[in-house]
Amino acid sequence: MISAQALTKSFKDKKRGEIRAVDGITLEAQPGRIYGLLGANGAGKTTTLRLLATLLKPTSGTAVVAGHDVLREPDKVRANVGFLAASTALYGRLTAREMITYFGKLNGMTEAAVKARIQLLADQLDMHEFLDRRCEKFSTGMKQKTSIARTLVHDPAVMIFDEPTLGLDVMTARSIVQFVRECKAQGKTVIYSTHVMSEVEKLCDTIGIIHNGRLLAEGTLEELRSRYAEPDLEEIFVKIVEAKS
Amino acid sequence: MNLGNILTVYLKELRDSLRDRRTVMSMIIIPTLVMPLLFFVVGKVATGVFSKAKNEVAAIMVIGAENSPGTVAALEASPRLRIVPLTNDWKNQISEKQVRAAVEIPADFDATQERGEAPVVLMYSYEGELKSRLAVNEVEKILEQTRHDRVQAELSARGLPAALVEPFTIKWENVAPPEKVGGNKLGGLVPYMIIILCFTGAMYPAMDLTAGEKERGTMETLLCSPVARVDIVLGKFLMVLTSSLAAMILSLTSMGLTFAFAGRIFSEGKGAAAAETGGSMAMIDPMGVLWVLAMVMPVAVLFSAVLFTVALFAKSYKEAQSYVAPMIFVVIMPAIVGMLPGIDLNARLALVPILNLSLVCKEMLSGVWHWQYIAIIFGSTCVYAGIALALAVNMFKREGVIFRV
Question: Is residue A86 part of a domain?
Answer without folding.
Answer: no
